[in-house]
């Protein structure tokens, strides 16, 4: 009986050593061999995460290009964009849309969503992770005309003359529309009178204004410098600093994101946008000024 027990223990020990040998056909490696051979590990691949970005329509062309660059930086991050007027995007967020990162073309829409706002603009909403909020880029407001400029419009002042038959503006709840009204008011141009004379048509975002100018459907339109670049439009005037508010685009990670992981990835993407040399070159190449 003792011999049987001894044999059983010997077999058990042999099997255990074979198992520790990693399945090799020979005997297990000696302790000296183990110490000389580094452990082989397979790095865990990062899980894919979707980042939902709501951004002003004027950023569509540039952010789409930057997204291609970002695939090399964070291949596990899927960027899903919605581009529209900042007012429309703000409403969608308020109504329950999932959004990890919001880039507005004006402070107003961001303030409305940010409970930390001190300007009195906040609407009792609390969507913004306030410590992530930055002033991202600056843009300029310009007057653009079709390529052949058939009405020979050369400046904002011409909008008060008989040269103008039809002007395209963004709606007043669209940032570029609000800036446009400030410019007209500064110049003493009565928007009500223009409307009464049938000289104004409105668009729901700045891209629609730019398209109408590009197609020659209107004599001119008030848009951003970056849209004039993107649509290859003829710019005849640029708003001076005293004609409208400074055009600052704030950006922030929101509380209504898809998950903690997507919010963290959104913060990483925002950091990339305003610090990476390639991203900055693309933004400034179309007319934005990145705010450091």
- Global outline: globular
Query: What proportion of the residues form beta strands (DSSP E)?
Result: 15-25%
The run of helices and strands is HHEHEHEHEEEHHEHEHEEHHE
Cα-atom radius of gyration: 30 Å
Q: What structural class do you assign from the helix and strand content? A: alpha/beta
What does the largest sheet look like? 6 strands, mixed
- Count of helical regions: 11
Under CATH, the topology of the largest domain is which?
D-Maltodextrin-Binding Protein, domain 2
- What is the number of strand segments? 11
How many domains, in number, for the residues?
Answer: 2
In whole angstroms, the N-to-C terminal distance is 84 Å
Low-confidence stretches: 1-44
The CATH architecture category of the largest domain equals 3-Layer(aba) Sandwich
Strand order of the largest sheet: 2-1-3-10-4-11
Nearest-integer average pLDDT: 88
Question: What level of helicity do the residues show?
Answer: 25-40%
Q: What is the CATH superfamily classification of the largest domain? A: Periplasmic binding protein-like II
CATH top level assignment of the largest domain: Alpha Beta
């Amino acid at each position: 009986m003792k011999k049987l027990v001894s044999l059983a223990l010997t077999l058990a020990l042999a099997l255990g050593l074979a198992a520790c040998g990693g399945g090799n056909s020979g005997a297990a490696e000696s302790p000296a061999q183990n110490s000389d051979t580094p452990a082989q590990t397979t790095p865990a691949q990062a899980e894919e995460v979707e980042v939902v970005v709501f951004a002003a329509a004027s950023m569509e062309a540039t952010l789409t290009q930057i997204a291609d660059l970002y695939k090399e930086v964070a291949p596990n991050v899927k960027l899903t964009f919605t581009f529209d007027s900042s007012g429309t995007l703000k409403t969608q967020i308020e109504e329950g849309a999932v959004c990890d990162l919001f880039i507005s073309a004006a402070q107003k829409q961001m303030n409305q969503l940010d409970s930390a706002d001190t300007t009195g603009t906040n609407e009792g909403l609390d969507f913004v992770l306030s410590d992530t909020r930055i002033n991202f880029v600056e843009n300029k407001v310009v007057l653009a005309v079709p390529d052949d400029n058939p009405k020979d419009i050369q400046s904002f002042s011409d909008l008060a003359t008989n040269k103008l038959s039809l002007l395209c503006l963004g709606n007043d709840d669209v940032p570029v529309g609000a800036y446009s009204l400030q410019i007209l008011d500064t110049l003493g141009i009565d928007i009500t009178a223009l409307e009464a004379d049938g000289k104004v048509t409105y668009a729901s975002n700045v891209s629609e204004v730019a398209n109408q100018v590009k197609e020659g459907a209107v004599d001119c339109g008030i848009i951003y410098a970056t849209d004039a670049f993107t649509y290859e439009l003829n710019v005849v005037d640029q708003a001076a600093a005293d004609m409208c508010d400074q055009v600052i685009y704030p950006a922030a990670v929101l509380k209504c994101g898809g998950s903690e992981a997507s919010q963290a990835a959104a913060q990483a993407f925002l950091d990339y946008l305003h610090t990476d040399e390639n991203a900055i070159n693309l933004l400034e190449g179309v007319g934005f000024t990145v705010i450091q």
